[in-house]
Amino acid sequence: MGIHRLEVMATDHLLRQRLANQQLVNPPQHSVPEIVSWLGAVQSQEFHDAKWSVAQRTDGLTHDAFMQAFNEGMILRTHVLRPTWHFVAPADIRWMLTLTAPRIKAFMRTNDRKLGLDEAVFSRTNTLIEQTLGKAGRYLTRMELAGVLKQAGIRLEANALAHILTRAELEGIICSGAMQGKHQTFALLDERVPEAHQLPREEALAKLATRYFASHGPATVHDFSWWSGLTLTDARLSIESIKSELASETIQGSTYWFVPASIPDRLPTRALLLPNFDEYVVGYADRTRLLEPTYAGELSGQGTILFYKTIVLTGQIVGTWKLVKEKARCRVERQPLRALTDCEETQIAETVERYLAFYELPVDEPVTG
């Protein structure tokens, strides 16, 4: 058997494991917090799209059910792991922040200085935000908090407000509150999440690694370092601490770690419409196996694959898509990277229907572009 054929088989096996572990095949009837907790954290900088990331992994989930879970604080949205928003379960938010917030603050420090934000300013803004939310006894929007800060003489040029609110999140002062109409709000973390016993750092590192390799494996140490925001040194220490719970395999010189699980030899055929920044893509530093080499250049030449909404068949990206809203209908416009079979077209059409139904979007023929 040729080397190329062996590589293809290894990639196929790896992707089948990832699809199953990420709950993208035969998605269970888990609750929203259960699936978010299983994944560890779900990148959600694009709030609207990230809801579909969760929905594709939870059988039968409706948009109303998702929003109820979010508004009731069954999942929270905050800056954790890397310097961007993630959905996270309330039981995980405090120990994850303690573990990853110092790295995020260090990453943001250069831009903080450019904006004139130092520790004295952050101390003042944190106090103002905490006192305001405490007195209000309710959730406040970004603009409402901006008004309070401006009235207190805080300068909010450029994206200073984003940095101020992010710092308050990283300090464990605020997190997401319930929606106010179409607007997201902030709430005091202490009001949404009871105080919890903090994990020792070594235990937190082990817990995060276990969560990641169970839900995202097989993956490399570099993948885990990227996803978690940890240094490579800490990532290696984390893997070493749970090595007895992990299995590994080597593909083309790279070691892939995973929590052993029963993965079927064949996975049911199911098309995926992934939003940008979905965990199946953003969860790994090396995304080359997600694209057949023949088509990799067509996306990489236009920028990082993270910014694309992608169509996935049998684990690999076969095209991109976008939602097109017109006067009386919505449709999904597709740009395949290769010719699709009739069977593949049918699978994609079925997923398009589920997507449009989840958001309760008005549909008029045709539903696909």
Automatic annotation (TrEMBL):
Pfam families the record matches: AlkZ-like (PF06224)
Domain of life according to the entry: Bacteria
UniProt cross-references to InterPro entries, sorted A to Z: AlkZ-like
Name listed for the protein in its UniProt record: Winged helix DNA-binding domain-containing protein
Organism: Fibrisoma limi BUZ 3
